[in-house]
Write a structure and sequence with these properties.
7% strand, 3 domains, Rubrerythrin, domain 2, Citrate Synthase, domain 1, binds carboxymethyl coenzyme *A, mainly alpha
Amino acid sequence: MSETVKLTIGEKTYELPVIEGSENEKAIDITKLRAESGYITIDTGFKNTGSTKSAVTFLDGEKGILRYRGYPIEQLAEKAEFLEVSYLLIYGHLPTKTEYQEFKENITTHTLVHEDMRMFFEAYPAKAHPMGIMAASLCTLSTFYPESLDPNRSDEAVDLTIHRLLAKIPTLAAWSYKNAMRHPVIYPKNHFDYCENFLHMMFAMPTCEYSPDPIITNALNKLLILHADHEQNCSASTVRVVGSSQANLYASISAGVSALWGPLHGGANQAVIEMLETIINDGGDLEKWINKAKDKEDSFRLMGFGHRVYKNFDPRAKIIKKAADDVLGKLGVVDPVLDIAKKLEEVALNDEYFQSRGLYPNVDFYSGIIYRALGIPTEMFTVMFALGRLPGWIAQWKEMMHDKQPISRPRQIYTGETERDFVDIDKR
Ligand code: CMC
């Protein structure tokens, strides 16, 4: 007989089913609790609430485990290509040679963005944050493909939208950078692979070609893989929530980009570098900044530290820290920001405040240092995160649609005024 949990409220006892996952994670199913008892459960910020069953990504925050479709992140980051991982996340298995070839060809043939989209880029001010452009332009893509507005049209139609999204996001990202520089946009070149093509669109000029450097393309490939999915985080949940209303995939992904932008989520990678630069410019007194982070009266937090689920270490941060050393070493880059980051990490990890709360460097702590070494400007860091996360968002959306999940609609406990009569304006 399957396990149940007994919940006693007053005189009555309710028997609630227990759901168990393939890694023995357990959840109490409260779906029918309100109908039977009148009670709802409350968990602000969903700290202990599962919103779905999912077969995409497994992570164990206590043990520092992260696996996409069962494959350890360490192996994927070491051996795979980003598009291979994208296929794995979206379709559930590693592609065969033929499947991969076809997938890559489909993506390569859609890298060009409709010429009319360029006018939007020309209209953005130079100081526009590239994440604002990213969210807007992804949603704008839907206006060019009206047939994609029905997310239930057909599997082929969904696949076409998936290919278009994966193909066009590097073009849109690079164009948002060119916009900030007030440089002409650079068109994709389809003989380049995914990472090379993005770097070409970022760094080529009408006056000079871009020649890919394997150190840089390999580092980018690894970073994108490390960011590719992270189960029910803020942006993935947003994609699922928006998608659950049957909004189209472009709109759902655009909502995910907006959720990612915040400094407590993907925006932390930009915030980390800005924080480290501020510390350096302020004289490098680490104790002062650590004390500020510990002070509850001060809104300052140590950016790139702490995670909702990782309480021992973030496996992605471990790989990225090593990659930062490798990449900077190979490129011969000496960056004072890397030195201060290492010192700050050491001070924080030996501090009781951070130890007792399980606050460790997360994926964003060292990623920005690599992006800097690759020549990516700070304001583009969160866009880089979005580029990496896109296949994860798509996989989460696809699973939600396949499982026919009902519209996301939480309940609340109302704490406002009880009923009262309207008062005419001259009597208030
Ligand atoms: N600096 C100082 N104190 C912190 C920090 C930090 N970075 N993070 C958490 N705390 C403290 C917090 O004040 C609280 O202390 P107390 O128990 O005394 O009230 C305790 O640690 C628990 O924090 P919380 O805010 O309840 O934890 P959470 O799970 O709600 O938040 C977090 C997780 C990532 C939003 C938070 O750790 C944070 O703000 N970190 C800095 C921003 C950051 O690096 N975000 C990137 C996350 S990784 C990329 C991604 O996947 O999004």
